[in-house]
Amino acid sequence: MLLAKCTQVLATLLKSLDQTHNFRTATAATDNSTLLARFFHAMTTSSITAPWKEGACPYAYDESTRLAVDASPGVAASARVYVELESTAFQASGIDSVAMRYGFFYGPGTWYAKDADMGEQVRQQEVPIVGAGQGVWSFVHIEDAASATAAALECAPGVYNIVDDNPREQREWLPAFARYCGAPEPLQVTEQEALTTSGADSVYYATRLRGASNEKARHELNFSPRPLEWL
Length: 231
Known about the structure:
- By secondary structure, the chain is of the alpha/beta class.
- It contains 8 helices and 10 strands.
- It is globular, with a radius of gyration of 17 Å.
């Protein structure tokens, strides 16, 4: 029952997402439910940032990593909202605050499914690899995210990255996702071409996004996410 409720809450959150997986409304609290026991702030790991260095480990960023307030305009704006929400929540008295930083949702009812929006976009070759495609993405199956959300009702207050074990660069996960969807190989464009046609946020996601570590969630929530199904 609780797991079903958490899945319902995440499904509601999906309706507040734009296609770059930023929450327009970042507070997830439900009236008249078990989730009223705590304040949940839901966001995505797409707002995590760290200085990019050639050869540096691209995905070992934990919950202490600062958010991307200096990234491309759309990402930076979302990150600043998240910073403000987290600050407000954790300073509030009488409330145990838990911030859930989810990876990109995939699975039934999400964009990243064969029969969903991203599946159709890759079949139309509308999602290219940008530049070297070195941006690192953290995914999570929506059912695993729901399980972690249920577990968080009884965990210590704090911030938790809810992502799978293997963040992947765009140049790796995107061709694999295309094959999974029965689509042709993605096109490849330069950063300048993508900047002109798709904007700065698209270039950021494809080339500068950093992955996240789930070590804390694995330890404190007994989180055990499934492998990304198209790899």
